């Protein structure tokens, strides 16, 4: 069973990725939420080129990725869930929940630790917010994330199918919750009870540090609500809010070469690093 999952993995991932990307792009054209400031051609070519760089570097850097390691752990009896007797649906459910919690915590850490923020701020430096923003991560952040994910998989021993489901859903929700689409408010209100919506995640891309440091979730919205990092709406409203960070606001900064060297440019401390100070000042 794990072997058949592994051989089907590339096809499933590519099909879901392309299908959801095309669907979001069409939806953005049909019902946009915000006016674009930057021509699509600049952002899309560079954001998509970054995906290619990220994918190649990830394949070259790791001999085995998360689904492969989960299959190996299942075969060899590594990790917690491979050593307890629970029904498959329980271990699949628990695994998907805990993997989602792990990336929530990892996201908080990438905001809180200076050196990691240097890598992660590139995701925030996109000057518009659309489906391709959801793909814009520095390759070193991608590699560190995979390292953390592999450690979680080794310790937890999740079923390979749970890891595949988790990654495919995460990929789809990242495209969806960055999309520049206009969901009617009542629909958004119901949807965000179970999934992070574009209006919820857009708050995280605000230049206002109190908003940048909120809504860390990617798939499930519950961790933000449980752990006190939830902000329902941006103070200036979705149309008027400023997207990005204060550093890196020129069009040239959106090019691939500038994105790649961004972690070593300028001071580490953008306003996003001072949330506690700003909140305390405000109180
Ligand atoms: Zn972030
Ligand atoms: Zn984002």
TrEMBL record:
Keyword terms: Membrane, Transmembrane, Transmembrane helix
Keyword Membrane found: yes
Residues of the Fatty acid hydroxylase domain: 94-229
GO biological process, one term: lipid biosynthetic process
GO molecular function, one term: iron ion binding
Residue ranges of the TM segments: 12-30, 51-73, 93-117
Location in the cell: Membrane
Chief place where the protein resides: membrane
Domain of life the protein comes from: Bacteria
One GO CC annotation: membrane
PANTHER family named among the record's database cross-references: STEROL DESATURASE (PTHR11863)
Designated name of the protein: Fatty acid hydroxylase
Organism: Celeribacter baekdonensis B30
């Amino acid at each position: 069973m794990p072997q058949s999952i592994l051989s089907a993995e590339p096809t499933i991932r590519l099909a879901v990725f392309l299908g959801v990307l095309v669907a979001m792009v069409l939806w953005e054209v049909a019902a946009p939420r915000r006016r674009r400031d930057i021509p699509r051609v600049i952002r899309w070519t560079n954001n998509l080129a970054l995906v290619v760089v990220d994918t190649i570097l990830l394949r070259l850097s790791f001999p085995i990725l998360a689904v492969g390691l989960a299959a190996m752990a299942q075969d060899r009896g590594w990790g917690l869930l491979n050593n307890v007797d629970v029904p498959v649906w329980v271990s699949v459910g628990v695994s998907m929940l805990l993997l989602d919690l792990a990336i929530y915590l990892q996201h908080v850490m990438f905001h809180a630790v200076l050196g990691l923020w240097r890598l992660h701020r590139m995701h925030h430096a996109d000057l518009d917010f659309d489906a391709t923003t959801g793909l814009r991560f520095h390759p070193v952040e991608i590699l560190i994330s995979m390292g953390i994910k592999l450690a979680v998989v080794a310790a937890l021993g999740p079923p390979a199918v749970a890891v595949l489901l988790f990654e495919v859903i995460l990929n789809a929700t990242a495209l969806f919750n960055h999309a520049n689409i206009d969901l009617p408010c009542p629909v958004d209100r119901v949807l965000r009870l179970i999934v992070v919506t574009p209006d919820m995640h857009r708050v995280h891309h605000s230049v206002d540090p109190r908003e940048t440091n909120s809504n860390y979730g990617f798939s499930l919205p519950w961790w933000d609500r449980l752990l006190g990092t939830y902000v329902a709406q941006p103070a200036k409203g979705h149309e008027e809010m400023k997207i990005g960070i204060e550093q890196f606001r020129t069009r040239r900064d959106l090019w691939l070469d500038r994105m790649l060297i961004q972690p070593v440019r300028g001071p580490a401390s953008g306003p996003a690093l001072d949330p506690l100070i700003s909140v305390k000042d405000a109180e």
